[in-house]
Structures are given as structure tokens and as C-alpha cells.
Amino acid sequence: MQVRLLTLKVVDGPLMERLMKQAFCRSLFVVMAFVCCLQAQTLKRIATIDLPGPKGERFDYLTMDDEDHYLLSAHLGPGILYVIDVGANKVVKAIPGVPGVTGLEYVPGLHKVYTSDWGEEKIGVVDLRSMTVIKRLATAAKPNGSAYAAPFHKVYVSNTLGKAVAIVDVDKDEIVKTLEFKSETGMPQFDSVGRKVYGEPSPATRYPPRPGCHKTKCNQRTEACLDRDARRKLSAAPLLRI
Which residue, 121, 50, 119, is CA-closest to 82? Predict the structure, then answer.
């Protein structure tokens, strides 16, 4: 049986420096080749969709209706909800009557979208089959971001200035509970595994204004955890700023 010995040799300084330079050059070549590949795959504009609303006024949230292949766009300024067919790249309908619309939450199966209408402090219910606003729910100040908890048939709408979260039953189109907080509320998210809704304070809460300064820093923010079954606040856990 033959035994092969592996010999390790300690190289001197100049040789090591030359080897490191060679390794760096090889790595640089690989990186440049990768960048060239990325450039070859640059995204390209394939279409432009003209919207009928007034120019120069603020837009807000976008969301998808995957069932109908619609892109839903909130035009906050004039209070219009655009329904855009992403297959045909055209506007299907411009739905008025959603003043100051910010957040959008589509509910699969029911073909409804819930709009956070800041302009009138209400949650709008839009039927995408009739393309009309079918109901308006009075809520706390500045309805904003929202999340849908499908297993519970509930939409959770943050009321930023009202320091609250409104819970909407999508089968009844009614607000069944309003949770109040000590801070302004930001964008909620539903965790389908933990069966909880998470929310965070808005930027105004994380950076309270002070005289002579637009914003002042704080070291951490908190995240509120809502129990879906009991519909109550469970805890407030600190989050590190990323």
C-alpha cells in the first residue's frame, strides 16, 4: 500500500503577497463577470399606463387582486381607486368616492377591497364586481395601513392619529372591535403561522417632534401583538432599529 504525504510549506512574505494579489485579481474577475450578467438581465419597460386622474397629486398604496389579475392603485390626492388589468395593461375603472385613500386591502374570494379613506375618516368597502363603493364605516382618525387575517375573516386597519386598530368583519362589513394604544399605529401584518397580527408605531411616534427640530431620535420602537382569537392586545415587545 502506498502512502502519500501532504507537505505544508510556509511561504515567505513577498510570495504570500503575490499569491494574495493573484487571488484578488481572480475574485475581481468573477465579480465583474457577475455584474456583466446582471446588466444583461436589466429590467425593461414594456408598457406605460396612462391614468385619468389629475397630475401632480399624491399616490399611496398599491396591492394586487390575483384572482382577477388587477393592480389596485390608491390616488390619495383626488380620492380615486384605479383598477388596472395587468394582462391588458389598461385601466378597467377609476372608482371615485374614496377621499384621501391611503391603504388598500383585497379580500380573496369576496372580490372586495377595503380602502382607508383618510379624507373622511372612514373605511370604504369596494365591490370589484360592480366597481362601486358599497359601504362606508366610520372609524378613528387617519385610517392607514391594513392587513387581512384570512382564517378569521377579519381586516385590521390601523388608525394612525387615532392610536387605534379597527377590526372589520368581512362577512358583515362591520367594525366588530377597536383596539386602542398609547402610541400612534403603523402598518399591521398578519402572521399565518403564529395566527397573530403585528403592528408598529408610526414614524411620528418613533420620532416625536420637538421645537426647532423636525424629528428627534429614540433608541428603540415597540411592536404590539394582537391575539386573533381573543381580539385583544397581548404584549409590547421592543424592536431594535435596523
Answer: 50
